[in-house]
């Protein structure tokens, strides 16, 4: 049985809150998921304090997955320091988006933390697509895409 995996969504500005709100509309409320954002004018150490408060609220036995907006930004930098200090119970992925969070919701009850992080990176890459209108118009299948 896998340990409880808590999730911290983090971003520059309110993006993480928006992704969480949208996922809640689609998937319903999920326990142990928070959005810790980095608004303009906030100090990096304030964001780290928010992370530490969120981690404490999950309980001592929780593993934590950070889902960050971009690699190398302040939310990533602050989270990566915590992950580096706690690699046995924390992981971090970047590229936060709605399909990633929904996939996380469906996969996290059945996966260990490291496996979940790897799964999200691999799976979400397939969610970025371009609509090929010509192919759809020439398709004889009766689908609801157009």
Sequence-ordered SSE layout with sheet pairings:
Blueprint lengths: L4 E8 L2 H13 L5 E6 L5 H15 L4 E6 L5 H12 L4 E5 L3 H10 L5 H12 L8 H6 L8
Parallel strand pairs: 1-2, 1-3, 3-4
Q: What fraction of residues sit in β-strands?
A: 15-25%
The helix tally amounts to 6
Which regions are unreliable across 5 or more consecutive residues at pLDDT < 50? none
Largest sheet: 4 strands, parallel
The sequence of SSEs as H and E is EHEHEHEHHH
What's the total count of β strands?
Answer: 4
- Order of strands across the widest beta sheet? 2-1-3-4
Helix vs. strand class: alpha/beta
Report the span from N to C terminus: 43 Å
General shape: globular
Rounded to an integer, what's the Rg over CA atoms? 17 Å
Helix content: 40-55%
- The averaged pLDDT comes out at 92
Kindly describe this structure:
With 146 residues, this protein is of the alpha/beta class. The chain is 47% helix and 17% strand. It contains 6 helices and 4 strands, in the order βαβαβαβααα. The protein has helices at residues 15-27, 44-58, 74-85, 98-107, 113-124, 133-138, and strands at residues 5-12, 33-38, 63-68, 90-94. The protein has a 4-stranded parallel β-sheet, sandwiched between helices. α1 packs across α4, α2 crosses α3 (74-85) and α4 (98-107) runs antiparallel to α5 (113-124). The model has no long low-confidence stretch (mean pLDDT 92).
């Amino acid at each position: 049985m896998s340990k409880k995996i808590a999730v911290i969504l983090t971003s520059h500005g309110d993006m993480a809150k928006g992704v969480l709100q949208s996922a809640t509309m689609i998937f319903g409320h999920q326990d142990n998921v928070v959005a810790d954002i980095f608004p303009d004018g906030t100090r990096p150490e304030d964001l780290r304090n928010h992370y530490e408060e969120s981690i404490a609220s999950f309980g001592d036995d929780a593993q934590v997955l950070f889902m960050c907006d971009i690699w190398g930004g302040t939310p990533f930098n602050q989270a990566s320091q915590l992950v580096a200090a706690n690699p046995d119970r924390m992981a971090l992925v970047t590229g936060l988006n709605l399909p990633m969070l929904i996939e996380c919701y469906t996969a996290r009850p059945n996966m260990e933390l490291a496996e979940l992080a790897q799964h999200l990176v691999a799976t979400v890459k397939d969610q970025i697509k371009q609509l090929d209108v010509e192919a759809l118009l020439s398709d004889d299948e009766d689908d609801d895409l157009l």
